[in-house]
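does this look right to u?? iron/sulfur cluster version
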Amino acid sequence: MQELNTKKRGKGMGQENNELLLTHIGPIKEMIQTCIQCGTCTASCPNTKFMDMTPRHMWRLLLTDHADVIFSSKSFIMCSSCYYCTLRCPRGLELTAAMSLLKQAALKLKLKRFRRSSLFYEAFLDSVKKHGRVKEMEFMTHYFMSMKNPLLPLGYAALGTRLLAKGKIRPDFSFGGKGKLTALFEKTAQLEG
Ligand code: SF4
Ligand code: SF4
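got this back:
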């Protein structure tokens, strides 16, 4: 694999992380090797308004060995895995899977700027692992505690109140669980190496 262009190195990306990045990015680059830069993925994506870099731009950076720049953006974190881009790509590329691999790489690289997203996903998956579904109160409590910021819940108070009022979430504080999906998660981790 070629060297990364360090002139545009992402914020907080040290030499050690750069080497790790090269290891993680290789398989993703392979997946999008035949991209023709048509932009259909960008035009299909419902979340581009939340992204500071379009999906097409991301693939271009990957193909030109500027993957580190992608990690100075949070665009791939905004992917909601809707699969529109995957369905519409004229080259049949597995773009949603590529987005997931970028998220996994950000987790494994332990980049500070993705800490919040990482802890959010961890709390979400922990709840799914225990109950086979998300228990909202437990999930958010776990997330708030991991963030160690006592003021953080205030930012969610209005949303939480609205969701409770509409019956979208239940005030269930019976925490704990039997780990219904633990075996499934362990098997997946084993397969992913
Ligand atoms: S839709 Fe496919 S071919 Fe077109 S820019 Fe996106 S990844 Fe490339
Ligand atoms: S899978 Fe992700 S990147 Fe693709 S269209 Fe959906 S939100 Fe956008």
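The two ends are 21 Å apart (CA to CA). idk if thats expected tbh
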